[in-house]
Amino acid sequence: MKENFIPYENPTYETEELKKIAAEFYKQMDRRRSVREYSNKPVPKEVIQNLIMTASSAPSGAHKQPWTFCAVSSAQMKAKLREAAEKEEYENYHGRMSEEWLADLAKFETDWNKEFLEVAPWLIIVCKKSYDIIDGKKKKNYYVLESVGIASGFLLAAIHQAGLVSLTHTPSPMNFLTKILGRPENEKPFLLIPVGYPAEDAEVPKLERKSADDVIVWYE
Q1: What is the tens place of the pLDDT at every residue in 141-184?
Q2: 79-114 burial by CB neighbour count: b if 16+ within 10 A, else e?
Q3: Fewer Cβ atoms within 10 Å of its own Cβ: the N or the C terminal residue of the chain?
Q4: pTM of the entire structure?
């Protein structure tokens, strides 16, 4: 065995069981939707920690793990984040966004009001780190966007797997998050993800995902 290596351990499955597992996971994930209407029902901190640690199990460039997950449940902090986010979103909807962009968003019936930022029991702000500071020195990270993007995908899947809902919120520009959260200069916000239970009367737009023929090109 190679030095500093350990045996790989994970179950494998024969063909029929493999087909069943893959199909069931696809069906489950195909039910995942972005939700903007939340219940204020509490979600235990332990659950959020496990969801985040699932995200942190994602692969990353040179195993640098260039991410920080800020988990916010403080009502005061959520109110500050909402106020700042809505200020940026108002500017987006009133001049920053192109007419084409606004037209593409029309089917979601959304605007600059972001009530969910206070109603959802948790907000997870995913931060990317282009470098780490170790012993006072900058240490470069690699493939940061790719790595943090994969980790965010893991997080969304874990949230759905737990029976909770989420939304990938990007109130661009997001510099206000760094300031309010007091994050260091090597961290930049990547996504703001509200997490919780759906409101009892929650609705989502009637949308269709692209078919396999639209997204897969086979080379056999």
Answers
A1: 999 999 999 999 999 999 999 999 999 999 889 999 999 999 99
A2: ebbbebbbebbeebbeeebeeeeeeeeeeeeeeeeb
A3: C
A4: 0.95
